[in-house]
Design brief:
alpha/beta
């Protein structure tokens, strides 16, 4: 994979793409996903880890609700990662992550993830470049372990939003009663560090890319959801799963 430069990647759907037709395709894919997730759970030979990263306001919660929330909750779990607790800080940075890796038959969603330890920590200078390099190596080894020793299939999505769209969405949280609970005044302070975050993300993409990241244009929710639903559907179909027969 060639080096990723986020400034060269559009945050919007391709021009001319029909919104209504795309939404209808997404609805059909979601129906497929419901059946495929049931098959994954029944066969219990594979697991799936979905990593969702993005700036504040990029729509991580919406993806989880509208794409992954349509499946049987018995087979899908979501873990949101915020600032580590005192107990978590007393362990290595992957300790709080590894205990939530998916079991066979399960789809595990990370809303933010182990990548925060080379993103926000780096932007705020809590983690120097040398430590970040070591953490990247550890992340690569961790993901390799999951893939090779537990048949875990990893999808990594970065929700690529424009600063203008982010500002609009963060501002909306101050006005819309249904979204006020999401408001955090610190989000606007973090937005001022946009350039630093983009640099940290690009370094992350270019050094932790097995499996590769998908940069998802996220200014339009309908397109973002279509991309993620399609990739998850294609992954599950490619596993060629079968329902187990009667137990003897």
């Amino acid at each position: 994979m060639s080096n990723i430069l986020l400034k060269d990647i559009s945050t919007r759907a391709p021009k001319g793409l029909d919104k209504q037709a795309t939404k209808e395709k997404t609805d059909a894919i979601l129906e497929e996903l419901d059946e495929l997730q049931n098959l994954l759970f029944a066969e219990s030979k594979h697991s799936v880890l979905v990593v969702i990263q993005g700036m504040d306001g990029s729509g991580k919660d919406g993806v989880i609700r509208n794409v992954l929330g349509n499946m049987n909750p018995q087979g899908v779990t979501v873990r949101s990662y915020k600032a580590p607790t005192a107990e978590e800080l007393s362990h290595d940075f992957l300790w709080r992550i590894h205990q939530h890796a998916p079991a066979k038959g399960m789809i595990q969603v990370f809303n933010r993830s182990h990548y925060e330890d080379i993103l926000v920590t780096r932007v705020h200078k809590w983690c120097d470049d040398e430590t970040a390099r070591k953490r990247m190596n550890a992340i690569n080894d961790f993901e390799k372990l999951l893939q090779e020793h537990n048949r875990t299939h990893i999808l990594k999505f970065y929700l690529h939003i424009s600063p203008e769209e982010q500002h609009e969405r963060l501002s909306e949280r101050m006005k819309d009663p249904a979204k006020m609970w999401k408001y955090n005044e610190k989000d606007f302070e973090e937005a001022k560090l946009w350039g630093d975050y983009m640099q940290a993300y690009e370094d992350c993409f270019n050094n932790c890319n097995n499996p590769e990241w998908t940069i998802v244009p996220a200014d339009q929710n309908w397109y973002k959801e279509f991309i993620i639903a399609t990739q998850l559907r294609d992954l599950l179909k490619g596993l060629n799963m079968q329902f187990p027969g009667l137990k003897k």
